[in-house]
């Protein structure tokens, strides 16, 4: 699943562990018949579960939520036994008690029940367009139990026979291929039945009902479809092309063929996650599957390609081979995050996907270096704890650690280890140890020690290098925190692959073990200890070594390595180990870089300096003036857009244009308004990449007429990319009256609750609109919580991390002391980040003033 990510820490309790099901009963097969009533938002179900009882029992406990049991029966020695059902709503369990002992061995439970099609975007739920309703599913992590009573834990794998009775005009999509479609049982209905699934976990089951239409393709003999509401179906062609390439790539890479008879990808109008890897029937938010190739920017094409690749990787990592329990969800999500970039980079090398990977790594290192973090493998038993695992550690850190280990072992050695792991656990469950033992056995290198040290410990290592001497370099390791006042337990130590860049541009990788003070240094004109830019650590060099690196960065380091160098230096500033002026000098040194990713990363950090270190308008204007002077020549050198521009040049121009717009360059702002108007009138008339930057600038400086135009696009466009882009920009207007209008619009019922969290949090995270937005949310809290799903309320508390004063922090804490946001974890992290900002400003603002005075 590609999820909206938040970072939390938690601990399990003994009571939470009690929510796990007994293991005495194991399902082998489910036969499901469902009849949804979209008008009444209800459904009825008839289910047979074939069970294997390990020992005689008087009762059976399984999962159920929002289910009304009509009857539960089984047959023993030719006699029908009826169960008494007792439900536990808190544990989401139902206990089926029989009036005699059931013998060990095989039995069949027959269950008649009813449920609701909810509006919470989970379980079996309603999704709506202006024309009609759809009945769709989202079961990960613990919501299959809302659609059918089940053993809703990943280790309880079984096969499934699924059939649905629906209105005559509706289609049904499920995991496998359709094998029969018959009229009835009543006039105006038809019953569709699907082939038996492979053995799989309940959270991977899917069925979707509506007037979906599809475009088709094929790869390696597998039919591929992209399906959507009728008005948007043609926008699925790009995703089909991506899937065709990716499926063949994965068949070849894994050495294990895609196992399902078909691959469907379905765009759903209301969908809380980004996408979900249901076996053979992947579901998506519309913007992550549907685009118009003629008007979509490169970022949108890349996003669709990567999301499709992520979910398709899950067909192997997660669907065929599934983690034994949710504490190892990183075996699903971390692997998909690591794998998603490979086929897209091979499909479109001109998109420079490895640079995006480097940017993501830097972002994850910062996330993990915060005061509040957690281990990759962490305890999780309750639905709330399990859902909290879908965060930047599970996706970002786990994927980054896998990338580091692959860089150390070599691509082919690592690939063979992956194959061995998958082949040993097909259609079964696995643990973290199963994976790293397979890699260790295949490579004969200490992968187990490396991975365990990163999986079992929180935080980021910092490697501090000495001056090289006599072919060796001294290396110290300790846990790195972005806040200089934060401390760990002092016991953390890692086994770390360190890859030195050699004279011929290759990597010399060695393992730094706990307690090892030295590593051998290869012959090279300069010391750089993160060859490839894939190490999961921060590097700190002596001043002379660092100065040399800055001098050779543009000629001696790859773009990915330069992104890592920038990230390391900014991290040193935040930790108060380097002055902010030194970082800004590094940004100036890469001003002529040809990589849009590098310039965008550097300039986004300059934006943070403006509002997290600078505290006065005079300081911000001085930074704006420096930014205009430093980067305007680079933009002018690129010239106007041309059909012959490379993707890299297009994105570089867009990044520079965006930065100059945010630095209040009046010429750029005027140009942006003109480009935005042209784009809204005819999206094909301007470069779509530049248009995205122009729309952002135009909205930030926009008037009521421009607000009206964006609102009209949102309400009338059938292009999800254009529609959602227009909506997002409504939240970035800086005119107070228009800001209030956007917030009120979000709560008006015209914005889907999948989109409301971003519309409410974006203006709070923006320092220029923060105060008014936060005041509005507090004053309208009841309406806010009504517009959000249960799982997204915490996003509001999380967005307050943008504040940077003790007074603001105390007001935030006071508000949430009487307005609960769930577990309180998002608030804890937000207050940590506010405190970090206060500390950063106190430490670095004097350095910024000194640097500005010299400019």
The best one-word shape is: globular
Count of helical stretches = 28
Q: Evaluate the radius of gyration.
A: 28 Å
Distance between the termini: 48 Å
Low-confidence stretches: 5-16
Q: Classify the helix fraction into a percent range.
A: 40-55%
- Counted beta strands: 28
User: What spatial order of strands do you see in the largest sheet?
Assistant: 5-4-8-2-1-11-14-13
Task: Give the integer mean of the pLDDT values.
Answer: 94
Structural class: alpha+beta
Largest sheet: 8 strands, mixed
**Percent of residues in β-strands:** 15-25%
Give your account of this protein's structure.
The chain has 855 residues and is of the alpha+beta class. Helix content is 43%, strand content 21%. The protein contains 28 helices and 28 strands. The strands form eight sheets. An eight-stranded mixed sheet has the order 5-4-8-2-1-11-14-13, with no helix packed on it. Strands 16-17-18-20-19 form a five-stranded mixed sheet, covered by helices on one side. It is globular.
